[in-house]
Design brief:
globular; 269 residues; disordered C terminus; single chain
Length: 269
């Protein structure tokens, strides 16, 4: 049985008296230890789908229907208190821009400890010790000293490592990574992807990766779903979809990738 099952997920936004459908009857599963990527151009519905899983979309303007099954429970029908115990704990998120994910007036250590105390039984010194361990785990040296630093004292890549530490500190079963490398330069992108792949394997995480970059997907995902105008138009093993695409839109994405790889300034290392 899949760890996460998305069944006929539909997301509509209420705007000026009309409804705009951002996600149209999506069906998708994620197995334990599997990385599934959703790709497509901006506005295709990837992020709306990711946020809808744990009802992170604004309740007044977003209408979510369908089912999201996790550990036998439909998250879309769950009461708010029960859902809060899952969101951030058993299902964690890492977003595109780490600078907006971190509180600028709180130290890194305070934010990490807060996340650990919220989602685990660790408290006080034990929680701080775990925070230091997680900083070291994601490749930030001198964790005890860096706990006293503020987000602006870290580079973008280091900030994203902190966000990874915060997401993984509760040892979630599912990690939703929404464009986790887009705001970073190419060299740092490669470092973060390598770290994410290592942590995913070590912790046997199920990962739902949101990306517009097929080269990122090729490096880390097992399966890939291609979205266009809110619909999942193609789904399959990464090798199959990228080497033998079946849908015209997928073929267009691959042609665009080929063009960009030949353009100076767009090569990936």
């Amino acid at each position: 049985m899949a760890l996460l099952t998305i069944d006929e997920l539909t997301v509509e936004y209420q705007t000026d008296g009309a409804r705009v459908r951002a996600v149209d009857r999506m069906n998708l599963t994620v197995e334990p230890g599997e990385v599934v990527a959703l790709v497509g151009e901006s506005g295709c519905g990837k992020t709306s789908a990711a946020l809808a899983l744990t009802r992170l979309l604004p309740g007044r303007s977003a209408v979510i229907t369908g089912r999201v099954l996790f550990d036998g429970h439909n998250l879309l029908a769950m009461d708010p208190e029960s859902l809060r115990a899952i969101r951030g704990g058993r299902i964690a998120y890492v977003f595109q821009d780490p600078a907006t994910s971190l509180n600028p007036v709180m130290t890194i250590g305070t934010q990490l400890v807060e996340a650990i105390e919220l989602h685990t039984d660790a408290r006080g010194r034990n929680a701080r010790a775990q925070a230091i361990e997680w900083l070291q785990h994601v490749g930030i040296p001198a964790g005890a000293e860096r706990c006293s630093a503020y987000p602006h004292e870290f580079s973008g890549g280091m900030q994203q490592r902190v966000c990874l530490a915060m997401a993984l500190a509760a040892r979630p079963q599912v990690l939703v990574a929404d464009e986790p490398t887009t705001a970073l330069d190419v060299t740092v992108q490669v470092q973060i992807l390598k770290l994410l792949r290592e942590l995913q394997r070590e912790l046997r995480l199920a990962v739902l990766l949101i990306s517009h970059d097929l080269m990122v997907v090729e490096r880390i995902a097992h399966r890939v779903g291609v979205m266009s105008q809110g619909r999942l138009v193609e789904l399959g093993a990464v090798e199959q979809v990228l080497q033998r695409p079946a849908h015209p839109y997928t073929k267009q994405l691959l042609q665009y990738r080929s063009m960009m790889s030949l353009t100076p300034g767009h090569r990936h290392g």
